[in-house]
Amino acid sequence: MTNSWVNWAGDQHCAPATIAAPRTLDEVAETLELAARRGRTVRVAGSGHSFTDAVLTDGVLMNLSNMNRIVEVDSATGLVRVEGGITLNTASSALHAAGLAFPNLGDIDVQTIAGATATGTHGTGATLQNLSAAMHSIELMLADGSRVELNAETDPDGWRAARVSVGALGVVTAVTLQMVPSFVLEGIERPVPIEEILDDLDSHVDGNEHFEFYMFAHSPLAMTKRNNKVDLPEQPRGKAVDWFADILMSNYAFDALCRLGKWQPGLVPWIHRSAAYAGSYRRQVDRSYRVFASPRLIRFTEMEYAIPRAHSAAAIREIKELGRKFDTAMPIEVRWVAPDDAFLSPAGGRDTCYIAVHQYRGMEWEPYFRACEAVFDKYEGRPHWGKRHFQTADTLRDRYPHWDRFAEVRRRFDPKGMFTNPYLDRVLGPVG
């Protein structure tokens, strides 16, 4: 029987020669040794929430889901050691009992810590960095089975390369995270006219710890979400309320609208206006990770770009107007992130606005995404490493001031190119 792998969206798949699911460091090393003997490349798959062909291989596909333990917790310092295959949700739930939490999370939390950080996954918050900034150190297993522990002191360039590496350096077997004390968030969702937001954007972004919104091309309204810490006890919503809001309305009902738009594209403007007006005031007071993340059952594909924050309003208006020319019932998502210093971080060195566009499963996405990418290119955009884009190493090199330093670390850690594949050859260039 042929081995096969498919991503969450169902639009990326491969047939590796071998799928390995090691449980220990020794088994990871054995997998790498066998791959080297057979002349095969190795890619590591997380939860499959990337929309690119980043992990596709006809060699060895390694799955770290069996290496998902919390190894050590220091409640006094907030330092937590976890294996690379643990998911954000599993870590959040377990560490809450120790009084600790991630400082920020995205709107889904099913990704593995290794996969989420390798692709530069982020949440929103003008003073908060992407998830990889929470890593205090990284244990990396190289092609020869040796392990290196990377942090800001042991290997500064290796450390800045490994935090957002797209899996190009080795196998992330464990990380030490700098967590913060557990906190309660008040999440408020309400519709606001998009022009009202854009006319006073800084007050919305800077006036909340976490601010984001969804908008539809054919609607004047945006659904805003503001998450702020509160000194209140958690108030979990009842299961019935959660199911109605997060499953029935946000997933099943909207999925039905998307299917309707796929069947009758002429109804997309009506779907946009209906979905936007259906959004109502919602308030949630709960543990941070429960407020940050929501279930995502609708299957789609996505493009997301990081642009300098200064261009936020102009780019948002252009992307919204562009969306009117294409048949997609899906929304546009906008978030903000603080700068960091990882070599390949899309938010590296600049205050950043992230804009994401989506297309429903089974619908043509390339013309829409190419048109959006032309706008993002105009605003010095850098693509999210786990989401669709059409860039190459030649078009990306000048967008990253430390591109050559990353390339040098890559040559040092993986000189024979064991961890490459066609995607990395295209977006990072060959190892040599």
Textual characterization of the structure:
The strands form five sheets. Strands 16-13-15-14-18-19-17-20 form an eight-stranded antiparallel β-sheet, sandwiched between helices. The chain has a five-stranded antiparallel β-sheet with strand order 6-7-11-9-10. The chain is globular, with a radius of gyration of 21 Å. The protein is α+β, with helices and mostly antiparallel strands. The two termini are 35 Å apart. The chain has three domains: 5-63, Uridine Diphospho-n-acetylenolpyruvylglucosamine Reductase, domain 2; 70-181, Uridine Diphospho-n-acetylenolpyruvylglucosamine Reductase, domain 3; 184-383, 3-Layer(aba) Sandwich (Vanillyl-alcohol Oxidase, Chain A, domain 3), CATH 3.40.462. Helix 10 (312-323) packs antiparallel against helix 11. The chain has helices spanning 25-38, 88-96, 113-118, 156-162, 194-199, 201-206, 239-263, 268-278, 288-292, 312-323, 366-378, 393-396, 403-413, 422-427; strands at 5-6, 13-14, 18-20, 42-45, 60-63, 70-74, 79-83, 100-101, 135-141, 147-150, 171-178, 180-181, 184-193, 210-215, 221-229, 282-287, 300-308, 332-337, 352-360, 382-383.
Number of domains: 3
Mean pLDDT: 95
Shape: globular
CATH topology of the largest domain: Vanillyl-alcohol Oxidase, Chain A, domain 3
Low-confidence stretches: none
CATH class of the largest domain: Alpha Beta
Structural category is alpha+beta
Mind telling me the C-alpha Rg? 21 Å
Total count of strands:
20
Please state the second-level CATH architecture of the largest domain: 3-Layer(aba) Sandwich
Total DSSP helices: 14
Helical coverage, percent range: 25-40%
Strand arrangement within the widest β-sheet reads 16-13-15-14-18-19-17-20
The biggest sheet, with number of strands, parallel, antiparallel or mixed sense and barrel status, is: 8 strands, antiparallel
Percent in strands: 15-25%
Q: Could you tell me how far the N terminus lies from the C terminus, measured between alpha carbons in angstroms? A: 35 Å
CATH superfamily of the largest domain: FAD-linked oxidases, C-terminal domain
